[in-house]
Amino acid sequence: MRISVIGCGYLGAVHAASMAKLGHEVIGIDVDERKISELQAGRAPFFEPGLPELLTEVQETGRLSFSTNMADAEGARVHFVCVGTPQRKGENAADLTYVDAAFNELFPYLNEGDIAVGKSTVPVGTAARLADLAADKAPGAVLAWNPEFLREGHAVKDTLTPDRFVYGIPAGPAGEAATAALDEVYATPLADGTPRLVVDYATAELVKTAANSFLATKISFINAMAEVCEATGADVTALADAIGMDERIGRKFLNAGVGFGGGCLPKDIRAFMARAGELGADQALTFLREVDAINMRRRTRVVELTRELCSGSLIGKRITVLGAAFKPESDDVRDSPALSVAAQLQLQGATVTVTDPEALANAKVRFPELAYEPETKTALARAHALVLLTEWKEYRELDPAAVGNLVDDKNILDGRNVLNPTAWRDAGWHYKGIGRQ
Ligand code: UGA
């Protein structure tokens, strides 16, 4: 099938390459010329494990091409819109400028029977509004909403073998046509048993925001428990292990630490609250305000714990922050808790060096005032305290004895609870975790 993918960021670039892998002929379109020329050359414009290999593999088949010209979308039967919906400046609501622009620019190129599919995370009601516009501007086409659940760092696998597909479609024959087309797009994973749910537009939009809200709530729940553990001397990691053994609760996303960040969970819960307010249902989501507040409190707490590690004062202390990305296996620093803590430590008088295997270039753009060092060993040298904030494998596997020979003072704050406290203490370190003694 001929497919167009509008927007070639994390979501779109991975989606375009994955659709080509599934055997389709794909054109990826983006207004960013730099991104498109990278992709045309078979290079991923961001760090995502497995994507460079996938790009090379599918480009050799000739099924994947890229363009900056929307007119090149014409002739495809299914068009996926994968542009971003960031938080609006100074507000909680989502900024739909890119979604609206993408659909409006696409409409003139849609032919009879084409399916325009939104994949971006949008406030509930957006698909119905765009469907009205499509009825006017591209009357022969059908609009569907097919939310994406991929995680950065696992994007290729999550796209090729997702947990489920959700199709939001209109009622009647138009909806049936959209379902048939999407079934053809996803024929391979569907044949392998991936479940698919066919629902109305509003439900499809809400599935995505509800899923991210639930994940954020789970993380903030365990971080709230960490606060209680800190007040009582209990251990939040053991607590998470124990409650996680109940299948109804589950252990995943119960890792206490510096909290969640990134380009999705923080802005999605805020946009959801804003949308609920517009719909007169704000009371239903006031708990998300607390979820957000618990999450933000973790960052302040980590700064406080670092101060305690440094005998009560950060002034003049050399602190090495391990990790800049919002999570491992990613170079994304959007709303990264690690960088936000690093900046706070520096503001409060510490001399901060940040290291990360992949995210330093992006980090420098966000926080040019911080010092960055790509070599872990050099970054660790002569530090008065280490603060682990992104749990890259390399940091989880640090040898306490070897690191002890590099630093000036053996103080470590494990902001993700991924190190073995006993091993570090046995090597003479003053170890602090989150929500654990
Ligand atoms: C999230 C969702 O997990 C995806 O399903 C969704 O498709 C995506 O947003 C999106 O909306 O596009 P992502 O932002 O890539 O994916 O990252 P997550 O793996 O969800 O992690 C988010 C944050 O939570 C990270 O900062 C991570 O360190 C933190 N986290 C995660 C914790 O603090 N504790 C945990 O137990 C798990």
Task: Please identify which CATH superfamily of the largest domain we are dealing with.
Answer: NAD(P)-binding Rossmann-like Domain
Helix content: 40-55%
* Overall domain count: 2
CATH architecture verdict of the largest domain: 3-Layer(aba) Sandwich
Mean pLDDT: 97
Mind telling me the C-alpha Rg? 23 Å
Strand-pairing-aware structural class: alpha/beta
Bound molecules: uridine-5'-diphosphate-glucuronic acid
Largest sheet: 6 strands, parallel
Task: Tell me what you see in this structure.
This protein is α/β, with parallel strands linked by helices and 437 residues long. The protein folds into 2 domains: 2-199, Rossmann fold (3-Layer(aba) Sandwich), CATH 3.40.50.720; 206-437, NAD(P)-binding Rossmann-like Domain (Rossmann fold). Helices cover 44% and strands 13% of the residues. The chain contains 18 helices and 14 strands. It has helices spanning 10-21, 33-40, 51-61, 97-106, 126-137, 155-160, 173-185, 187-191, 201-232, 236-244, 265-278, 286-309, 337-347, 360-366, 376-380, 393-396, 400-404, 421-426, and strands at residues 2-6, 25-29, 64-67, 78-81, 115-118, 142-145, 165-168, 196-199, 318-322, 351-355, 371-372, 385-388, 411-414, 430-432. The strands form 3 sheets. The protein has a 6-stranded parallel β-sheet, sandwiched between helices. The chain has a 6-stranded parallel β-sheet with strand order 11-10-9-12-13-14. A two-stranded parallel ribbon has the order 7-8. Helix 18 (421-426) links the parallel strand 13 and strand 14 (430-432). Helix 9 (201-232) packs across helix 11 (265-278). It is globular. It binds uridine-5'-diphosphate-glucuronic acid. Uridine-5'-diphosphate-glucuronic acid (UGA) binds next to helix 9. Belongs to the UDP-glucose/GDP-mannose dehydrogenase family. It catalyses: UDP-alpha-D-glucose + 2 NAD(+) + H2O = UDP-alpha-D-glucuronate + 2 NADH + 3 H(+).
